[in-house]
Amino acid sequence: MSFNTFGHLFRVTTWGESHGRGIGCVVDGCPPGIRFTLADIQADLDRRKPGQSKHTTQRQEDDRVEVLSGVLEAEDDPETLVTTGTPISMAIWNTDQRSKDYSDIKDRYRPGHADYTYDVKYGIRDYRGGGRSSARETAARVAAGALARRVVPGLDVRGAMVSIGTKGIDRTRWDWAEVRRNAFFCPDAEAVAQWDAYLDDIRKSLNSVGGVIEIVATGVPAGIGAPVYGKLDQDIASGLMSINAVKGVEIGNGFEAARITGVDNADEMRMGNDGQVQFLSNHAGGILGGIATGQPVVARFAVKPTSSIMTPRRSVTASGEEVEVVTRGRHDPCVGIRAVPIGEAMVACAIADHYLLHRGQTGRV
Questions:
Q1: Is the model's pTM score more than 0.85?
Q2: Which of 106, 218, 251, 289 is most buried, with most CB under 10 Å away?
Q3: Residue 317: DSSP 8-state
Q4: Of the candidates 115, 131, 134, which has an alpha carbon nearest to the alpha carbon of residue 123?
């Protein structure tokens, strides 16, 4: 299987399967001298890990990360690790896989999953939770993203769920602090109770829903990115689309830009008191011509409903028999909830990569 690597200079290769011994990543191209602690990495993994609320899969994984290479202990603080410039390998061991939950579907294709397409391409598939196609793989990306955040000085990447199924938020009540206080990563405190009842009903009806996540990155240096085939928004969109179950990505106004006029969509400019250009709005989402403007980079992505549901669905077997499939096991009624830290990680990796590319090409940032 090819294509397990993304990035240009900040390159991430992930490995492992949902029900194998473990998962992990190798980060190549990280500059030397980056300081971090295991707690820095673990904090992001803890936000993604399963079993933290009734609205996510009850698979219990500690997701404890081990750094196997590419670092030294800091002389001034044994808790701090310093990158050496060599490949950084990180591992997360699986501890609560229950492969027997999937024995009933060993030869059956689950509707909405990659079972059929993997079988068509490779002639073999790992039916135990989807193997490499499982969202379990994304924990490794989150570990890499935690490191990427520290490559760009002053970079801050935050995400929030802005809609779940048919339920949205009131943007006038947006509160970043609220995102850390509820199980939905929701920035609107008043929407949380409504979402809780809504998802309870969805789960009890043996169904699932999707959601939309918004990622906002501040502290992105103006000028990073490249025109034509090396656009910053191109690589952000590619990274977000690579996340399991993602079916759509937009930057800034996104599809809304097609419904408004040029007068409404263009970001006007004036000179600030500091002699620097100031934008009067940010419909472009912080990127013009593939190059960062210095404004917040804003991206949104849509996650489809979880395909693993207890409601019978029509399908076929590998031998061509028509059957009904019920997917047992432990699954998220809305997989989009845990996609928030994953989206943050992919945006952070793309920005770190372009930061290093820009520094290599221009000698400045």
A1: yes
A2: 251
A3: B
A4: 115
